[in-house]
Input
Amino acid sequence: MSAARLAIDDWSRLCAPVDEADARAMLEGWRADGAKLGFGYFRSGAGVMQTGTATLLRVSPQLLTLDTGGSRLVVVLDKARFEFGNLGFLTADFRGLRDVRGLSVFLHNNDWLCLFAGPESCDPSLLARAFGVLSAE
Output
């Protein structure tokens, strides 16, 4: 079985739903700390739209605003679902997966935003090979 297939099959085991209040508290903590986050934004049916590093500028009940260095990414949180856990990324040789713990935000329009904190989360080579797994519904 390929690493990609394994990641898709094991998705529900790797991530767990997070209460919205807990997810927002995590986001607000990252914002207050000025944490440098790795992120990936995936569009349903189109794949990876943007990856990189960002800081959170705003966390509100309706919106999440990220400063990505050269631009701002505004995400509408209406009816979003949150999950926290290991997210699979392809290794440099594309033969395996590397798990990074992160927060996934599944948006109402079926787009997906994932955020990672920690030193491994901002590795450009890791972010460039983001493995876009969607929810295991």
The chain has a mean pLDDT of 75.
